[in-house]
Amino acid sequence: MFTEHRPVHLVMALLLSLAPMLAGAATWQHEYGTVSLDEPPARVVTLNWAATEALLLLGVTPIGMADRDGYSVWVKEPELPEGVHNIGTRVAPSLEAIAELKPDLIVTSAEMAPAAELLERIAPTYVISVYREGSRPREKSREMLVTLGQMLGREDRADAVIADIEETLAIQRQRLETADLSDRPVALVNFLDDRHVRIYAPNGLYQTVLDGLGLSNAWPRKGNFWGFSVVGLEALAPYGNSRIVVISPLPPGLADTLAISPFWTYLPPVKQQQIYPVDTTWPFGGLFQIKRLAVQLTDSLLAGGHDNVR
């Protein structure tokens, strides 16, 4: 009897010895395969700002990131702590700089697909694209936050961030409804020069903000997969009942140039003093940009409009 049952005992002993290892390991699917981790990573490198934002929302500072200095100019929040290493640009990061940091995890997107195999040789790599043809930015940025929360053992933090954003949208929506400011369409634009703007379309991240605030988008056409179209000022003329929300930064001297521009001054929203300034937000970021724009847009609409950019 003892000999007959011996293989079973051996198998059980082997399984018991592997139990701690199996309990700590997990695997996640991503756009180019899978990534497996034995324990929460302590040293994470991010190759785009949306990933950096997600990490910071979870209370984790990346050991290195791409385009570090630009983050504080264009994204601003969540604030980037000091001490993060710059590993090159978002389109051409330095593999040597990444390797020197000895990361436990690299977070990147499909733009870096040609280097995916090389990144995998350095550290486990998680590939997720918030902005890609056919993607839905809000859902993808939420997926990234939740998945990174699982990897880092911070699921509760991810849930709290998502709940806070939903609560913020509800509060700001109530503010606008109380002030009776929800009925007029909104056109969200960035100025590229005194004749052209980047206008944000219904398929972009910013549409989530408008939907959450109970506002309609004055621009009805689908944009590129980044969620915008580049148009001349004359393209805004048919939407005379809209409020134009101008998102910073602005080209130098723009206000003076627009003040004498026939392409600008003849627009109905300009004549009706329906121009509203908003501080810099990053339209190609993650979930936090929804909260940032929602608060700033609501504050600007409540403060009242102007006849020019500010």
Outline the fold blueprint.
Layout: H1 2-24, E1 26-30, E2 33-37, E3 44-46, H2 49-57, E4 64-65, H3 68-74, E5 85-86, H4 95-100, E6 105-108, H5 116-122, E7 125-127, H6 137-151, H7 155-178, E8 186-191, E9 196-200, H8 205-213, E10 228-232, E11 243-247, H9 254-259, H10 262-265, H11 268-271, E12 275-278, H12 288-303
Parallel strand pairs: 3-4, 3-6, 4-5, 6-7, 8-11, 11-12
Antiparallel strand pairs: 1-2, 8-9, 9-10
Helix pairs in contact: 2-6, 6-7, 7-12, 8-12
Give the end-to-end Cα distance, rounded to a whole number of Å. 89 Å
User: Percent of residues in beta strands?
Assistant: 15-25%
Q: Averaged pLDDT, please?
A: 90
Report strand order across the widest sheet: 5-4-3-6-7
Q: Helical region count?
A: 12
Order of helices and strands: HEEEHEHEHEHEHHEEHEEHHHEH
The percentage helix is 40-55%
Return the structural class. Answer: alpha/beta
Largest sheet: 5 strands, parallel
Rg result: 24 Å
Apparent shape: elongated
Unreliable spans: 1-23
Quick one: how many beta strands?
12
Structural description of this entry:
This protein is α/β, with parallel strands linked by helices and about 300 residues long. Helix content is about 40%, strand content about 15%. It has a five-stranded parallel sheet with strand order 5-4-3-6-7. The chain has a five-stranded mixed sheet with strand order 10-9-8-11-12. Strands 1-2 form a two-stranded antiparallel sheet. Strand 6, helix 5 (about 115-120) and strand 7 form a beta-alpha-beta unit. The longest helix is centred in the middle third of the chain and has 24 residues, at about 155-180. It starts with a helix and ends in a 7-residue tail after the last helix.
